[in-house]
Specification:
390 residues; alpha/beta; Rossmann fold; Dehydroquinate synthase-like, alpha domain; 2 domains; six-stranded parallel β-sheet; two-stranded antiparallel ribbon; 15 helices; globular
Length: 390
């Protein structure tokens, strides 16, 4: 008999289908915030209207903005954003942007709480995973500044208390986890996503598909996680192609946003991910592959490698949810991703065979390598997966 627990973060409210320009000021009012510091994607700032409308909606509550966050959230950029928030006297952080902005804001709340000002200051707060899978998470005072996220991509980090932050000294993306790092509110405004580049929207959609798939196929899957992951996957299977056909279809975008929300229920349910996520963390943080593209490349290969250990025919649940019962799930995913025009090989994202060994060794220090449905006990096995994705 399975046993476990559903652990909810401090996320208290998700508003959907309402304009961020009106929903964000209402969130600030609920939080009693008078100095809202915005972290936004540079592309949105340059585009203008969406950010201007949000600033106007906040009125005197608007305290300042940071828009310089690079991909994979390097520590020095987090510190720059934290400095801006500190100087502005921020009593709430709000994000308008993608996953790197979201992770950056979570890390900013930690930096504000513990007065982190230098790159090494993050060291005591990083989760550690040994090569044998033993994971340790340091204990410390959790941040309590309100954080409200208005996501413009689909990687769905706004629903969990984890932040991925890169250490520029060693070129590795690392995890910070604290319940207080989770947003207090999320605002889903599909119109806000119209400015998101197509490749970014679709690839982060595949990232959320990866959340669903690896949760469904996990050895630790449970009914709560299954119900939401399966429905989230079905939403994506239908809605992502709709957005590709018509980028102005805000109803399809809303379905994608709801699917992204559902894709993260497994985290609350304590269901770990597998090797696609683990290897993806390394490809992104250490090899510069775009966050969404990592799943486009790794997920079908990992599913193919895991097939001999598919317990309870879980992979067929993936095929059913995607409208292809009985087909090999790796093939279904490959065709789906290819149909979205996304890269389907490591070579397509600039990762070459001479880099496989280093990627594999680094992957052994990611906690989700060690919760893969087919046990991974050596870096050589990760190399075998990378070869399938080559």
């Amino acid at each position: 008999m399975l046993s476990g627990a559903i652990t909810f973060s401090r996320l208290a409210k998700v508003t959907y289908g309402e304009a961020a320009a009106t929903a964000l000021p209402a969130a600030a009012e609920r939080a009693g915030a008078s100095r809202v510091f915005i972290m936004a994607s540079q592309s949105l700032v340059e585009r203008g209207p969406e950010i201007s409308a949000i600033r106007e909606g906040l009125g005197q509550r608007y305290a300042g903005m940071y828009s310089g966050m690079p991909s994979h959230t390097p520590r020095d950029a987090v510190l720059a954003a934290a400095h801006g928030a500190r100087e502005a006297g921020a009593d709430m952080i709000a994000t308008v942007g993608g996953g790197s902005i979201t992770d950056g804001a979570k890390a900013v709340t930690l930096a504000l709480e513990h007065n982190l000002t230098e790159i090494p200051d993050f060291d005591p707060y990083i989760m550690q995973t040994a090569a044998d899978g033993t994971t340790s998470s340091p204990k410390y005072r959790s941040p309590n500044i309100p954080l409200v996220c208005c996501p413009t991509t689909l990687s769905a980090g706004e629903y969990n208390p984890l932040a991925g932050v890169s250490d520029p000294r060693i070129g590795v993306k690392q995890a910070i986890r604290s319940l207080g790092c989770a947003p207090s509110e999320v605002i889903l405004d599909p119109a806000l996503t119209l400015a998101t580049p197509e490749w970014l929207w679709l690839s982060t959609g595949v990232r959320a598909v990866d959340h669903c798939v690896e949760a469904i196929c996990s050895r630790f899957a449970n009914a709560y996680s299954d119900a939401q992951s399966l429905h989230g996957l079905a939403l994506f299977a239908e809605a992502l192609p709709r957005v590709m056909r018509d980028a102005s279809d805000v109803a399809a975008r809303m379905d994608c946003q709801m699917g992204a929300w559902l894709s993260m229920a497994s985290t609350q349910a304590g269901v770990p991910k597998g090797a696609s996520h683990a290897i993806g963390h390394i490809l992104g943080g250490s090899f510069g592959v775009a966050h969404g593209h990592t799943s486009c490349v790794t997920l079908p290969a990992v599913m193919r490698w895991n097939k001999p250990a598919d317990h309870g025919n879980r992979q067929n649940l993936v095929s059913i949810a995607m409208g292809a019962p009985g087909r090999n799930a790796a093939d279904v995913l490959h065709d789906f991703i290819e149909g979205l025009g996304m890269p389907r090989s490591l070579s397509a994202v600039g990762v070459t065979p001479d880099q496989f060994e280093r990627a594999a060794e680094l992957s052994m220090h990611d906690r989700w390598t060690h919760t893969n449905p087919r046990p991974i006990t050596s870096a050589d096995q990760v190399v075998d997966i990378l070869k399938l994705a080559a």
